[in-house]
Amino acid sequence: MCAYPRRGRCIPHPHADFSLVTSRTYQIRRSPLLAHAAPTDSPSHASPELSGARLSGSFLITPPSVPSDPPAVSPITSVLSSLHKSDLLLLSTTTPSPLRTLPVSPYPAQPGTRVRAHFVSHNAPKEMDGWEPWINGTWAKWETGTVLGYRDFAGREAQPGTYDALSHMLFKPPPTAGSSGGPIVDEETGAVVGVMLGTRMDNRVEGMRGWGVPAEVIFEMFSLPGLKLKNN
């Protein structure tokens, strides 16, 4: 698979011998041009029909622990699972050292919950309140916000704790361009409660709002058939 993700985060899994990363993507396609022979002793979590091949032209870039050092670059070894309606991918990668992970909440955050969202800007913001240099000239900050509510795929209001489908998560403030794929974290528990996708406006009265998917969608990717994470 060839994937074109924006941003992602590492999530913990006790039975995997590689790192798991969730991200947003705009396109997934098979690219035979990217498949090439790999050493037999190299780890591979690619599809069995292309054993030993590297199926991804994407890379995981993580900020260095020392600001003066270059960022670490690790190839994405495979696409393990995906939910195209939710615009999410589950990727695998191997890194020289363990990645810092964030816990993922299996429960939806109630409307009014205070959250922190990881905003990114490709240009230096005019107001530097909380913004810090990040990766390759970008800037980042943890913006304080609030969960506004949920919508189903038809755009109808949905309520947590019911049988409503929580397909879309709405929050404020609207994220900056380049923030899609970043986490929305519960300010009290520190757990991921959503993944940012962008902005949307359902009507002029409510105006532009932040748009994402609730973290419970991530667990759906683990329940799909064909996903093997346990060590042999």
Order of helices and strands: EEEEEEEEEEEEEH
Tally of separate domains: 2
For the largest beta sheet, what order do the strands appear in spatially? Answer: 6-8-10-13-12-11
Helix content: under 10%
Q: Label the overall shape.
A: globular
Radius of gyration: 18 Å
> Uncertain segments of ≥5 residues (pLDDT<50)?
1-6, 42-54
Main β-sheet description: 6 strands, antiparallel, barrel
Number of helices: 1
Global structural class: mainly beta
Strand element count:
13
Strand content: 35-45%
Terminal residue distance:
24 Å
Mean pLDDT across all amino acids: 78
Question: Concise description?
Answer:
By secondary structure, this protein is mostly beta strands.
